[in-house]
Design brief:
With 321 residues, the chain is of the alpha+beta class. It is built from 9 helices and 11 strands. The longest helix has 26 residues.
Length: 321
Amino acid sequence: VGSIDFRTVAGQVVDSGMLGRVLGAEQSNTSVVLGETLLLKLFRQVSPGVNPDIELHRALAETGCTNVAPLRAWLETEQDGELTMLGMAQDFVADSAEGWTTALASVRDLLAGDREPENAAADFAGEAHDLGAAVAQVHADLAQELGTSDRPAADSVDEILARVEAAADVVPALADHLPAARDLIARAEAAGTTAVQRIHGDLHLGQVLRTPSRWLLIDFEGEPAKSLDERRQSDSALRDVAGMLRSFDYAAHHLLLGDSDASDDDYERASRWVQRNSDAFCDGYASVAGTDPRDRADLLAAYELDKAVYEAVYEARNRPT
């Protein structure tokens, strides 16, 4: 394949000879822990061009962002004369817990008793608030380093509508919901212009880590179903917010699906867990951003619908059962 270069971030030195162990978690890349100090992520699906995970980590490093694991180095080569990135090395965060696992523990505790979310021993609202603040800080840092621009909300709405219409071909059951979906999306057209910037692009509870001191965002590659060019496009920060709100809903109902013993009360308490943590997340986001995502409720709802439909298509293609 020609030469492969190992590039280090300016001022960084990476030791050679470190022993590695492969992580077995389900993911789209292969991750190797080196010397228990670095995480080497090797991209299994390689596209020519600048990888957004490396690109955005480098930009965040310039701002001194503390809500990501620092990038130390990356692998690159030339493919048909074009720069192609093959992997990246960043600090390994050993004392962390995945956001999905943490949230599920809270839901499991809630459903095990008859308490309300705010009275559960593993109440997640404080964590959701801090997570919202972390996401807002990353958005602010990306905007500072890479800039923002304005875009007509109608453009985003048209793209969402096209994806929802196309999804019905993959998941026929969605067809019954298209009239309601079109009405919801149409309401978002009144949003006028919206600020767009570089964002995470595929944010959910599985893309965040809780350390003893803070939340970290990981995996800035964007949605795997999109092309590299699509994943590098600017978008509204509301897309990331919507992804996390959808993830709260996903986590709350995950343990109930297929459970024949689940009662209406279980579903109602799970829904209240979603609302409590969604509000806490938005409160935390607003505390840093200065603007509340809920102030643009119609556009946020359209992004949430877009994410929900994406999930349905993903499951149909990858986990049809």
